């Protein structure tokens, strides 16, 4: 049996208009849990894994931001991370980083580099 050709073509993570501004969205890519954060023109993608305990950050689907919507927040112990580079700036893993996945926008879609 042959595999459909679509299985070999790069697939976008999501459409840009699926990301609220500001907003965040959980994503699956090749079996790996990721999430995207949008703030204006800036979109960043990280692995959905808190450096404190190695667990997913969100308790509520697609909610990765704090109440100010300016910082990424881990729901378990409240660590706060900068959306631009994933640095933890407060909480039990201060100074650690989320794992960033380089990405770009093309044709209104979000792609991993
Ligand atoms: S598991 Fe994320 S702050 Fe503890």
Automatic annotation (TrEMBL):
Q: Which SUPFAM superfamilies match?
A: ISP domain (SSF50022)
Keyword vocabulary terms for this entry: 2Fe-2S, Iron, Iron-sulfur, Metal-binding
Q: Does the keyword Iron apply?
A: yes
Q: Give the superkingdom in one word.
A: Bacteria
Write down the InterPro entries for this protein, in alphabetical order. Answer: Rieske_2Fe-2S, Rieske_2Fe-2S_sf
Task: Name one matching Pfam family.
Answer: Rieske
Q: Name one GO molecular function term.
A: 2 iron, 2 sulfur cluster binding
TM annotation in the entry: none
Q: Name the CDD domains on file.
A: Rieske (cd03467)
Rieske domain residues are 11-112
PANTHER family in alphabetical order: PTHR40261, RIESKE DOMAIN-CONTAINING PROTEIN (PTHR40261:SF1)
Report the protein name in the record.
Answer: Rieske (2Fe-2S) protein
